[in-house]
Design a protein that fits this description.
about 150 residues, mainly alpha, two-stranded antiparallel sheet, about 55% helix
């Protein structure tokens, strides 16, 4: 019985000898480290570029007239001024942005209204099902109707 040892692989361009392929056994046999390719986002869920853009938008600046405002407000004013003076690209961009903002506002208002309607229905149901003792406790915890609130400025 003769045991044959495997023959060493041929060495050459792109194929270093086996003893030199992985010096100090430093290769990772389990592949790339988790998260090394897709870097985690910041705590607010923003990438580094988004965070920098947000910081720049919130940065204060002084306009030519000496007014101090956020950069985003200054850019909006400049875009609106260009649109008013007849810049069609600025008009289109501004109207598109305005439409998006109005849609978001409408969706938020509808969600708020739906939440209040659900609150009223749940409260009425709880009051209908409650005993007189529970009803007194629930009456103390309920929010007042907006018409019953008086705001003193």
């Amino acid at each position: 019985m003769s045991s044959k040892l495997p023959e060493p692989a041929a060495a050459g361009y792109g194929k270093p000898p086996a003893e030199h392929q992985f010096p100090n056994n430093s290769h990772r046999q389990r592949g790339r480290k988790r998260g090394s390719k897709n870097k985690p986002k910041t705590p607010l869920g923003l990438t580094d570029n988004e965070r920098v853009a947000l910081e720049e938008a919130e940065r204060l600046m002084t306009t030519k007239s000496g007014e101090v405002m956020e950069t985003s407000r200054a850019v909006s004013r400049s875009q609106i001024k260009t649109a008013v003076l007849g810049g069609t690209n600025a008009q289109k961009a501004y109207l598109t942005r305005l439409d998006t903002i109005q849609q978001k506002k409408r969706a938020a208002e509808e969600a708020n209204l739906l939440a209040w309607e659900e609150y009223v229905q749940a409260t009425e149901h709880r009051l209908d099902m409650a005993t007189p003792e529970e009803r007194q406790y629930l009456d103390e915890r309920l929010l007042p109707h907006p018409a019953d609130i008086e705001v003193d400025f």
